[in-house]
Design goal:
Elements: E1 23-25, H1 47-59, E2 64-67, H2 79-95, E3 103-107, H3 112-125, E4 129-133, H4 144-157, E5 162-166, H5 178-184, E6 190-195, H6 200-207, E7 218-221, H7 227-232, E8 237-238, H8 247-263, H9 267-303, H10 323-327, H11 330-345
Parallel strand pairs: 1-2, 2-3, 3-4, 4-5, 5-6, 6-7, 7-8
Helix pairs in contact: 1-2, 2-3, 3-4, 4-5, 5-6, 8-9, 8-11, 9-11
């Protein structure tokens, strides 16, 4: 049986947040150059590679998948493709014995009704949470009250519990203040947030706020390079792109923090966590510089998943300088691969 969550907002029931753990915003794989299906303008989905990657992550300890977030190129994927993508990965996880791994589906629409339509279709396809990107087209003119009312309107009618996706880098620098998060966190159908920015004081004001019920509203960092700091201020985990390449490395840091907290953190624990966080930060530089293009390039070069040529236009083509660009990252990623394989052997 697939992972499920109960919700009935019409009777005021409070939705439950997703299980705590490391999630991956997975890239969407498209048919590779040279295949019969390839189309240089709009290559079709490559569901075989998509499923291989999903199972690679599940075996590596990832708690669940975020499909069609920014890394998943949601804005380039048609609605019909969304449903096939989500349902295929739900089936792949279920068939392999990972029915307990939830799927969170992203939306990137500006219109409330369109967002609600996507959420409904995503639920039918197998998603159990929706990660809703803030409406950033008119960001300079949008008030905090307007942002609050927009998310409340979505949450009131959404058939899935929602997480607020705050990513100023793709929303015209839309700013959602900690005070607005405090108001939204009280909604029974809003169960958390993914914070994809490095404003650590704002993250603290949300994750540690005494005016938020943190049993109901979870704070995930969208940046693995902030995982350890965010855990210390009350965040629950990360929705992290590097974990899509080295799942065991990122999961290891998450588990070390919780294990050491439970038994009493030692100096050795702190040193090990710092070392892991340092290694993660090194790897995250490719994500910060190249986004989904860098993520796909690394997956292809490190694990032979996909062809590493980016996504749909205008992202198609991968690194502009090919091998020369990869040389800048190769040593770091070789080291992370060795670490990933060491953790796998110790399982």
């Amino acid at each position: 049986m697939s992972f499920n969550t109960e919700l009935n907002t019409s009777r005021g029931a409070q939705a439950s947040p997703p299980p705590q753990g490391i999630y991956v915003p997975v890239p969407t794989f498209f048919a590779a150059e040279g295949t019969a299906e390839y189309d240089p303008i709009s290559p079709p989905l490559d569901l075989k590679t998509q499923s291989e990657h999903s199972l690679f992550l599940a075996k590596g300890g990832i708690k669940g998948l975020v499909i069609l977030g920014s890394t998943g190129e949601a804005i380039f994927v048609r609605n019909e493709e969304r449903s096939r993508l989500i349902s295929s990965q739900r089936k792949a996880l279920d068939d392999a014995g990972y029915a307990d791994r939830p799927i969170i589906a992203g939306t990137a629409t500006q219109n409330i009704d369109d967002t609600l339509d996507l959420i409904k279709a995503d639920k039918e396809a197998g998603a159990v949470y929706s990660m809703v990107l803030g409406p950033g087209y008119f960001a300079p003119s949008t008030s905090q009250r307007g942002i609050q009312k927009w998310f409340e309107a979505v949450a009131d009618k959404a058939v899935l519990p929602i997480l607020i996706y705050h990513y100023p880098g793709v929303t015209n620098n839309l700013y959602i203040s900690p005070a607005t998060f405090e108001k939204l966190a009280g909604h029974p159908n809003i169960v958390g947030t993914k914070l994809s920015h490095g404003i650590i004081d704002d993250q603290t004001l949300i994750a540690a706020s005494p005016r938020i019920d943190h049993e109901h509203f979870y704070v995930f960092t969208g940046l693995g390079q902030n995982l350890l700091p965010v855990l210390t201020i009350g965040g629950v985990a990360a929705i992290d792109a590097l974990a899509g390449i080295f799942p065991r490395v990122v999961v290891r840091l998450y588990r070390l923090f919780h294990d050491s907290t439970a038994k009493g953190t030692t100096k050795q624990d702190i040193e090990e966590m710092r070392e892991l966080q340092y290694r993660i930060c090194e790897g995250e530089k490719i994500v910060a510089r190249w986004g989904v293009v860098g993520t796909k390039e690394a997956l292809a070069r490190v694990w032979s998943l996909g062809d590493g040529k980016g996504g749909r236009l205008p992202l198609a083509g991968g690194f502009e300088d090919g091998d020369e660009e990869w040389k800048k990252w190769a040593k770091t990623f070789e080291g992370l691969k060795q670490l990933e394989e060491e953790f796998q052997k110790s399982e």
